Amino acid sequence: MEQQTKTSGRPLGATLKPRQLTMMGLGSAIGAGLFIGSGAGIQAAGPAVLISYLVAGTLIILVMWALGEMAAANPDSGAFSVYTAKAYGPVAGATVGWLWWLQLVVVIAAEALGAAGLLATIFPALPVWLMAFVFIVLLTAVNLTSVKNFGEFEFWFALLKVAAIVGFLLVGAALLFGWLPGVQSPGLSNFTGAGFAPSGFAGIATALFVVAFAFGGTEIVSVAAAETAEPARSVKKAVRTVLWRILVFYIGSIFIIAAVVPVGSAGLKSPFAAVLDAAGMPGAATAITLVAVAALLSALNANLYGASRMAFSLAERGDAPRLLASVSKARVPVIAVLASVAFGVVTVGLELAFPEMVLPVLLNIVGSTCLLVWTSALLAQLALRLRADSEGTELPLRMPGFPWLTGFGLLILVAIFTVGFIGEDSRPQLLSTFSLVALLAVANWLHQRRKVPVLVDTSEGDKQPALVD
């Protein structure tokens, strides 16, 4: 019999397998930000960008532990939104939920257009607009069938990206050790002397703000945990497995790129292809382009899933239209899926009609959302763990080093925000995102004031207060 996970009183299918949840965590972190955008961090800091990645990697480990602890104890499709509400009230929880939903639906449009644009460089005869809409339709269909199908689809997407990274690491290691016939090893000259950190501490700090976004998406594991058969066990395995693999894949890849591609090289625009070209691998640019397309489509698939589950959770809590909480026979929140993808479709249409006038503005507004979500997760874990410890509550998964490591994660976030506000390029993005947060907070506060307590009959015949619109 199909198992079900209750989320605020309504059942969702609980058929995601531990291997799917684990690969989802890996796949959500390994995206186009690594395959294409990693060159920006190296350009800013040189090989010293490894320090930036280590700091950002440490942060995401702490965030994953915090989310894992809360998700194992209380699996919910609203995840960090629900945990923030439990810790700091419904206004804070709804604000975080809507903020994350807005980020995902905007990014869905960016990923569809990005994947179509990349594929058009290989097959120029295919119209970008047509490919973008085909991608959206196909992945919407995947999300509408069942969570089991979504999980399997995302599993193979993630496996492709992981295989590409492993292959890249093997080729890169062979190149550095001089094992490739007819190809001279570049050695480690890029790491010596002033070339290691050509821009000094300022470059490392600037790169920290850039690379932090590369780990965005890992939080979706806490959302998907609500639809696994054994949430506590699955989350434990996913957290413990994903964390060290992310660091190995990221740090290993960046080390090889920094060693092979000099700062200032045009190859940093497509760093993976530059390394494979240096290794004498034919068709490197085409191969990496196809992997990047797969990475974008995987992210689109996962983001549509995450957006629909967050909308479902918000509706269940009365913070979104009730219609979004309806589920199909396959235990899929169909209306939430369609509503989430509709925003992306409209954004794609507007961007195609008015190039560079819609999507860049929306991405700038929601650009720093992941940093705020991570902040809310750590703050919620701090409050809920203190509450659980004071009440003597047993937790299936406990974040080690509490509360010091939670505090350390918050300090890293403060440092990233500080760097972002100092930088002239990043300051407008942060200000836009914080303005959006303020608007959402006010809207949710007004919505909460509209909720009035009424008496409802319980099964025991007593009347209990409930909140309704």
Can you tell me about this structure?
- The chain is mainly alpha-helical.
- Helices cover 69% and strands 4% of the residues.
- The protein has helices at 18-29, 32-35, 38-45, 49-73, 79-88, 90-122, 128-145, 147-176, 200-212, 220-224, 231-260, 271-278, 284-316, 334-353, 359-366, 369-391, 404-422, 427-450, and strands at 4-7, 10-13, 452-457, 463-468.
- It has a two-stranded antiparallel sheet.
- A hairpin with a 5-residue loop joins strand 3 and strand 4.
- Helix 12 (271-278) runs antiparallel to helix 13.
Helix content: 55-70%
Q: Strand pairing plus helix content: what structural class?
A: mainly alpha
Instruction: Return the average pLDDT rounded to an integer.
Output: 84
Major sheet summary line: 2 strands, antiparallel
End-to-end separation in angstroms reads 36 Å
Total helices: the number is 18
- SSE run: EEHHHHHHHHHHHHHHHHHHEE
Number of strands: 4
Sum this structure up briefly.
The chain is mainly alpha-helical and 469 residues long.
Key traits:
469 residues; mainly alpha; two-stranded antiparallel sheet; 69% helix
Explain the layout of strands and helices.
Blueprint lengths: L3 E4 L2 E4 L4 H12 L2 H4 L2 H8 L3 H25 L5 H10 L1 H33 L5 H18 L1 H30 L23 H13 L7 H5 L6 H30 L10 H8 L5 H33 L17 H20 L5 H8 L2 H23 L12 H19 L4 H24 L1 E6 L5 E6 L1
Antiparallel strand pairs: 1-2, 3-4
Helix pairs in contact: 1-8, 1-11, 3-9, 4-9, 4-11, 4-16, 4-17, 5-6, 5-16, 6-7, 6-13, 6-14, 6-15, 6-16, 6-18, 7-8, 7-13, 7-14, 8-11, 8-12, 8-13, 9-17, 11-12, 12-13, 13-14, 16-17, 17-18
